[in-house]
Amino acid sequence: MSRSSTNRKRKAIIEKSIDNFGDDGEKTFVGHGGFGDREAFKKECATLEKLRHPNIVAYIRSRNVSDGGQQMLAIVMEFCEKGSLRQVLFDAKIIYSMRTVLTWSKQLFSVLTYLKQNDVIHRDIKPDNILVTKNFLLKVGDFGSIKLKADSCSGTFVGTLRYMSPPRAGEPVGRKDHFMSSHRNDVYSLGLVLWEIVEQR
Predict the structure, then answer these.
(1) What's the CATH number of domain 83-200, 2.20.140.10, 1.10.510.10, 3.20.20.70, 3.30.460.80?
(2) CA dist 5 to 27, 128, 131, 195, Å?
(3) What is the mean pLDDT of the chain?
(4) What would be one Pfam family of this protein (predicted)?
(5) 186: which residues sit within 8 A by CB, 6+ positions away?
(6) CA geometry: angle at 79 spanning 48 and 34, to 5°?
(7) What integer is the mean pLDDT of 170-191?
């Protein structure tokens, strides 16, 4: 069972495998990007290794892999059997109640509270980046767009446009950038996710 998505610099592969760690999911970064891309991937690994929350995909290890002679970096994470939240929402065979919606809401807001306490901004909260276990527990994943509080503001918008909060009219550019890269934007994105959960019920 596998699922993959790609863009110019990254490739994610999630597959079920059996090794000394049990059932794992593996996310692989294709190393044909520049040095900065590899540094971003290492930053993601370092952040995931420190984060411990029941609703964040558990980090297991990172390693170097080779594909046809091409060197890649890989993150091995826990396997979530139901796939992404988007897959669950659009699966006609899965019916969930408002009680489940409330439970999921508590789980996801708990993650945002935890991230804020640890000075981490996710910046790409969306159904595709929320995974679902066999027991329908939600797990936030894909920390490839994270921003740490100590990082300087690059002025670059990162994330998925549909789930980005609109810049507030009349504010200087610097203030807009600050808002887009703040915890408030994660809350805005989560609000849209919850609306989709209710709308698809």
Answers:
(1) 1.10.510.10
(2) 10, 11, 15, 25
(3) 76
(4) Pkinase
(5) 112, 115, 121, 122, 123, 125
(6) 50
(7) 69
Q: How far, CA to CA in Å, does 135 sit from each of 16, 72, 157?
A: 17, 32, 35
How large is the greatest C-alpha to C-alpha distance in the chain, in angstroms?
Answer: 56
> pLDDT tens, 64-100?
777 677 777 778 888 899 999 999 999 999 999 999 9
Tokens of 89: 């929402």
| Residue 122 structure tokens | 């996710």
Active site positions, annotated: 124
* Contact between 50 and 132 (Cβ < 8 Å): no
Place of tokens 């709308």: 199
- Measure the CA–CA gap between 165 and 187, rounded to whole angstroms: 9
The two three-digit tokens of residue 59, written as one number: 């980090």
- Residue spans per domain, the chain: 2-78, 83-200
- The C-alpha atoms of residue 86 and residue 131 are separated, in whole angstroms, by 9
Angle between helix 98-117 and helix 183-200 axes, rounded to 10 deg: 170
